[in-house]
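Thread: Newbie trying to understand structure tokens

Hi all, I'm a second-year student working on a class project, and my supervisor (Dr. K.) asked me to get a predicted structure for one chain before our next meeting. I've only ever worked with sequences, so writing a 3D structure as a token string is new to me. If someone could post the tokens and maybe explain what I'm looking at, I'd be very grateful. Here's the chain:
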Amino acid sequence: MHRRYQEAIEAYSRSPRLSPAIWNKMGIAYQMMFNAKDAARCYNQSLKLNPRNSQVINNLATVYDSEKNFRAGERYYRKALRLDPNSALILRNLGSNLLSQHKFKKGDEVYRQAVAIDPRIFDQHSGISVQNPASVEDRGVLHFYMAKGCVIGGNPVCAIQNLRMALNEGYTSAKKVADDQSFASLRDLPDFKQMIASESEHQ
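---
Reply by user tm_fold:
Sure, no problem. This is what the structure looks like when written as tokens:
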């Protein structure tokens, strides 16, 4: 995969005209190779040519998040939202950013806004997305609140998947999940019952 991204960058760089879109694609390729410095350079070049592209601003924000500079990331997500306030992807990324800063209430609110626009925003989707924080506890937080968002979006499969990950990361317990009214609609589902029973045996 590293070689493929490197080949893509070389192909893009040979373009007779380095447009904002090409700079953005090179940024994504660098970011996929975990080269934050060159990714940011390409995104900034794209924004010099087209400063009002909300998706490129969002991508730049994810670079800051990957470097744990969450304040800068938040600033750029909010800038992107001023240009595209109905982007569920940008709202999802901002929600993850806020949760990573332990702004749990604000992060939950932003997740709810994202789900209101796109009920399946926590499923697989296109576009650069926030990398989970390094700490185990923070990863659990993100999955727990994503599970709540999935319930609101009417997606029980997504909710249970994220709850499993939150439990695996040790953020919450089977009893707390079972008692949480946010997940009341899942209680009669066989997969939910199996998850709670399995986790309860190990706690």
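A couple of things are worth pointing out once you decode it. Residues 132-203 form one domain. The mean pLDDT is 91. Feel free to ask follow-ups in this thread.
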